[in-house]
Amino acid sequence: MGKKCIIVGAGSFTESALPLEEGDYVIAADGGLAYLEQLHIRPHMVIGDFDSLGRQPDQGNVVRLPVEKDDTDMGAAIRQGLQKGFDCFYLYGGCGGRMDHTLANIQHLAALTKAGKQAVLFGERQEIRMLKGPGKMVFPPGKKGTVSVLAYSDRCLGVWEKGFQYRLEDYTMESHVPLGVSNAFTGREAVLSVKDGLLLVITDRQGE
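Now predict its structure.
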């Protein structure tokens, strides 16, 4: 997968440890610094207006943003990662709390995917991804929980779901019809593919 840009925001997530590898770059987006402090991880950069954190961080490499701005702290952190040349983004603490911020982070996820980057948004036992056509995702045998597949584009053409509890074959998904909610893994290898369009894919790891 290569080096990752790991961004931690002020929302909720359940990981007790982050999958850090040599060469990864960690950014705290505002209140995400408090989570990293609990995990005893010192970020490479801290960015935000610090309304969520409630204090001014005293470590080095702090980027202070104005309260009145055109983007969220998470969005500003993503731009920093892009400027540093990262192609893989793990976003933690971008779900829960304010619905508008959660939706904004899903939009950031879509923008990264459309730009050809790998990106995952982690919530409370949920992992949120985008799949851009033509493309596919392969889930290994033994995976548990549910998966919801929704059209993020107006229409997604040629959607296939194989190896799940419910099967789709060459289906056209539309953004106003939530047909793909709450499918389930069966223990077999499962494959999701789309010919054209952008799919929102939410896996729930409950039971793993």
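The chain has two domains: 5-124, 131-204.
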